[in-house]
Amino acid sequence: MSDRKIMLMTFLRSVEPRMPELDMLKPLQHQVEELKKRDLTATFLFQYDALSEDRFVDLVKNEPSFEKGLWLETVQPQVEAAGLKWRGRFPWDWHAHCGFLVGYTPEERILLIDEAFSLFKKRFGYYPTAVGSWIIDAFSLRYMERKYKIRAAAICREQWGMDGYSLWGGYYSQGYYPCDKNVLCPAASLEHMIGVPVFRKSNSDPIYDYDFDLDYEKRHKGLRVPLTTMEACCDHGGADPTWVDWMLSINQGPYATPFGLVDIGQENSFSWESMEKGILLDYERADTLRKAGKADLVTLTQLGDWYRDNFKKTPCCCLYADKDSEGTPRGTLWYQSPYYRVNFYFDDERLWIRDMHLYDESYEERYLSKATSGNTFCYDALPVAEGRLWSDEETRAGIYIWDRETDAPVIENSKPLICDLPDKGKMITKNTLKGKIIFELRENSLTVRLPKGLLLRNVYLKTGDEPVPFVSGEGNILRAVHDGFAYSLKLSKGNVQLRDEDLLFVPDEEGVICIDLS
Predict the structure, then answer these.
(1) In Å, what is the CA distance from 153 to each residue of 72, 149, 175, 177, 357?
(2) Distance between CA atoms of 338 and 447, rounded to whole angstroms?
(3) What is the H or E stretch that residue 260 is in?
(4) What is the pLDDT of residues 203-232, one digit of tens each?
């Protein structure tokens, strides 16, 4: 089997209260027709309301190449069948306190899960092995792993506040085994690992989507950059041949390690007319790659099984793009390990660390043992550098390579060189007039080698969308508190200096900064 994977996945509802006139069956009918025409395998995840209706079930029930699973948003008939009170405005309500498992106590979640699995078995004769939702809390995932032996799960891509849902700081791409206390964070130990691999839905642009609401004037002439994803209804994403080919190239080529993954599909809450162009394009591209032997088409369960066969614990994953879909020399590298993630951004002038989050198995998700009462939910990790939430259009937060003499970031028109390290790490090298700068990324450490006169400066806006967590920094220890959770960062080489307006990482006499992240 190939380590390049493409997954065709759609989730199904029977109602859309925001557009009650929408034909919810038509997208499924056309997707099934196009899949069968090309002999493509796919995964269909049923929300409880769609699972209750023959018109949805009958279209896929007897198709062996179609996997059937559960989409775990909660709806009125499911809640009432479980003996609970429905608190939503409509039979399906997207607000977190009623439309997701996190809106219910752990005891209520068990009732809701059991009801959904029971109906699924009545409809298909077996329990599903694949589940998905914009978010699935760690308690519910562990429960389904133990009772129903599920083998794979899908949650939403990285986003902040979209539709009221924030998932921020986790594995940006590929997949991971989550921690039993926080479903967004990978487990570092087998003791705290949920054995169900989790994959992120709807690949998003790895260069621009992280901070899409900050201007990139050179590319969009001062206009705000729109969110760009593999969703088929996204005109500038999954429905744009140039962007789709670029996204496939970075996820299906050597730029994604140790495997590549693209998720294709579109929920039926959008009209067929809005998704037709993208669906036809994306199915055709998937079919071409499959026939050329360049990628495996897999269901969600098949992907989970392959992942477990190849990775006994969460691997370090990397996604790299050296230019954007239009060929502009802007790029990014996402490096993710069970201990941290880091994102490098570079353009035609400089390179900086745009994002860095730590993972700690003791950091509990907000809804592990209690229900949310709000309309939104937030899942996150522990920030060290935050290029979006501590930024505005004038202050781009991040960790910059800083010149002590000029008191300014190092600017040099040279493209960074990315290469592998022997221990499955990555090395980034950038040449400047001051000399060579090297970043070494390993599973449990980040090492920086700097020429004389340079250091790293963590720049941030204290009045950003999220508070800066740093409380003290001196010697080799940085201490922070995020959402009431205390954590620290230790340097085995170099030191930190927390000042009123910024944070400095100062190299040792040999020009080395080494951050211990285990």
Answers:
(1) 10, 12, 10, 10, 23
(2) 17
(3) strand 260-264
(4) 999 999 999 878 655 344 444 456 899 999
